[in-house]
Each structure stands twice: as C-alpha cells, then as structure tokens.
Amino acid sequence: MQNGLKAIIFDWDQTLYETFPLHRAGIEHAARECSREVPSVGAIIKEYATTIEKHLQNVLGLPLEAPLASYLRFYYQRNLALCRPFPKAAETVAGLKEKGYRLAILSNKEDRAGFQEVEASGLAPLFDAVAFREQVPELKPGPGGLLWMLNSLGVSPAQALYIGDEPRNIQCARRAGVRSGAALWGTLRPEELQAIGPDSTWDRLEALTQAF
C-alpha cells in the first residue's frame, strides 16, 4: 500500500454515481409544478449545496415544502432506472479492493435514495462501510462525519484518502486531517474544485487503479 494509505473513502453523487442529469430535471419539474421560475443549468450548478433542502431553497426560494415534495416524487420514480455508476466504477473499486484497501462511501445524500442506489449499482459488496446523512454526527464540509467513518474503519486520518467532486469534500478532508482527492471526471465545477487545492486530482476514475 502506498505511503501508509489503508482506506479510500468516496463521495457518492458525481463521484461514483452519475445523478446530475436527473437532479437537474427534478428541480426543473418542481419549479414548473409549483409555479416557480425555472432556474438555468448554470444557476443549478452554482447554487449546488450541501443538502437537497438547501439546494432547492437556493434555486427555488421559500416556502420549501411543496417543491421539495415535488422533487422527491420525481426523483424516486426515476432514479433507479435512469442513474448509473460512472464508466469503469465497478472495475476500479474492485481493483482497489483486491489490493487490500478498506473502502467506504460517505455522502450527505438522503438515506433512502443513497442506500437504494448503492444496492442497485451492484457496488455494495465491494465496500466495508456506507454512510449517508442520517448515520453521521455532522455533514460535510464539517469533519465529524468523516472522522466517524475513520473510526468505523479502524484507521487514523493519516491512513485515509477522501475522494469527491465538490469543494466541500476537500474542505471536509482537510479539516479531518485526511488526504483529499478531486474527482474531476464527475465534478460540475472543475475550476473551483482545483482552486481549493486538493492533494491529488484525477481526470478519469480508472486512473485510481494505477495511482495506488
């Protein structure tokens, strides 16, 4: 194992699993159904936030109850049929598993969607631990959830790497004392992600098997 690294932890959305096209469509549907202005794609990307509730508030405004319900109905009716792991995700994760790394998923995503998607993706057996927002004591960019995950895996911050597509993932890793990796293959904001200074960056998911 490289430089004492024992565990690799992944974000989920836009890191291992491509969900943004459906997420965008869900926001646009909720806006129309609730008679709100439909935000541009640029606005949806710019206002992408730590939770779906905060993101909808940023782009559709308050009150939130009706658009949130509309979005969730739309998303849950389609996510398992329309969303997929990124190309080479299974092969890459399996390759890291074969090399002896402990692997985990840590995401701010709502539990119901997250666990459904991990199971449907076929990736679940490859991971030692999976946690979404209801399992962790603190959401990203705070370090509490990542530190909780490290404890679950039995590794120290110096022995772990956290890979994600958003600046908040890099901030979370830094605050936890964990090495950070930028998933440029899935990010919606590559310049912002690189500007925050991740320890490593990869353009392709499958490059991880050569890096470790």
What do you see in this structure?
The structure is a single chain. The chain is α/β, with parallel strands linked by helices and 212 residues long. It folds into two domains: 2-18 and 84-211, Rossmann fold, CATH 3.40.50; 20-81. It has eleven helices and eight strands. The strands form two sheets. A six-stranded parallel beta sheet has the order 5-4-1-6-7-8, sandwiched between helices. A two-stranded antiparallel sheet has the order 2-3. Helix 10 links the parallel strand 7 and strand 8. The radius of gyration is 17 Å and the shape is globular.
Topology, element by element:
Blueprint: E1 7-10, E2 17-18, H1 20-33, H2 41-46, H3 52-60, H4 65-76, H5 79-82, E3 84-85, H6 89-98, E4 102-106, H7 111-121, E5 129-131, H8 144-153, E6 160-164, H9 167-176, E7 179-183, H10 190-195, E8 200-202, H11 208-211
Parallel strand pairs: 1-4, 1-6, 4-5, 6-7, 7-8
Antiparallel strand pairs: 2-3
Spans where pLDDT lies below 50 across 5 or more residues = none
* SSE series: EEHHHHHEHEHEHEHEHEH
Strand content: 5-15%
Radius of gyration: 17 Å
Count of DSSP E strands? 8
User: Biggest sheet, open or closed, and with what strands and sense?
Assistant: 6 strands, parallel
Strand order of the largest sheet: 5-4-1-6-7-8
Structural class estimated from helices and strands: alpha/beta
Proportion in helices: 40-55%
Distance between the termini: 7 Å
Q: Which superfamily, in CATH terms, is the homologous superfamily of the largest domain?
A: HAD superfamily/HAD-like
| Helix count from the secondary structure assignment | 11
CATH class of the largest domain: Alpha Beta
> So what's the overall shape?
globular
For the residues shown, what is the average pLDDT? 96
